[in-house]
């Protein structure tokens, strides 16, 4: 099984070093480090890690939550936030940013490993849901195109709905092209002939 590839983002170099050592002892692979939020985003874009562990409060224009929102929006990697602060405003912002995990400092190895694994599992679930949603959108788009194409065939060739569908289905099988492609071709030919 491949090692989990992690980027550490914290403006304190000693914390980064301690965290890197702890992660390596735990069997994780640290593939990048950054001292500010924007550098963390840039590193994640180039390295494509499995996880980003990021401090909330850092020097610079962005904090860890802002960076987490960017990483989540770009679907680069899940983010586990580390912070010494537990106020509800930060927790709310982290939730809205799509943060996968939130761990209070100081923490132990026994707390870090479950936080990492839960964050990774949530991200995988999110990715699977996003794939399922995209598949459903594709199916709906195909269904709409096929319905429109059936209407064209029914009007042009005076076919029943079943006959029109059967022709689209048969053309799909004969050409080994998806029904969506056949429907698009029918609709395109109607546009050209109009």
Q: What's the arrangement of secondary structure elements?
A:
Blueprint: E1 5-9, H1 13-25, E2 29-34, H2 37-47, E3 51-55, H3 64-73, E4 79-83, H4 88-97, E5 101-104, H5 109-157, H6 161-175, H7 179-193
Parallel strand pairs: 1-2, 1-3, 3-4, 4-5
Helix pairs in contact: 2-3, 3-4, 5-6, 5-7, 6-7
Question: How would you characterize the overall build of this protein?
Answer:
By secondary structure, the chain is α/β, with parallel strands linked by helices. The protein has two domains: 103 residues, Response regulator (Rossmann fold, 3-Layer(aba) Sandwich), CATH 3.40.50; 61 residues, Winged helix-like DNA-binding domain superfamily/Winged helix DNA-binding domain (Arc Repressor Mutant, subunit A, Orthogonal Bundle), CATH 1.10.10. It is 63% helix and 13% strand. Helix 4 links the parallel strand 4 and strand 5. Helix 3 packs parallel to helix 4 and helix 6 crosses helix 7. The model has no long low-confidence stretch (mean pLDDT 89).
């Amino acid at each position: 099984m491949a090692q989990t590839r992690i980027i550490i983002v914290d403006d304190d170099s000693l914390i980064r070093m301690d965290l890197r050592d702890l992660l390596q002892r735990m069997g994780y692979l640290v593939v990048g480090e950054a001292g500010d939020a924007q550098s963390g985003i840039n590193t994640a874009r180039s390295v494509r890690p499995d996880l980003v562990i990021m401090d909330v409060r850092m020097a610079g224009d962005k904090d860890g939550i802002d960076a987490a929102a960017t990483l989540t929006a770009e679907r680069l990697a899940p983010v586990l936030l580390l912070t010494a602060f537990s106020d509800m405003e930060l927790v709310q912002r982290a939730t809205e940013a799509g943060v996968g995990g939130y761990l209070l400092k100081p923490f132990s190895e026994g707390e870090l490993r479950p936080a990492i694994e839960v964050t990774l599992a949530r991200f995988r679930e999110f990715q699977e849901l996003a794939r399922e949603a995209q598949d459903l959108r594709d199916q709906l788009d195909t269904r709409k195109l096929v319905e429109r194409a059936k209407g064209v065939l029914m009007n042009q060739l005076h076919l029943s709905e079943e006959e029109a569908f059967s022709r689209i289905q048969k053309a799909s099988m004969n050409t080994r092209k998806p029904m969506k492609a056949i429907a698009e071709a029918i609709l395109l030919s109607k546009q050209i002939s109009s």
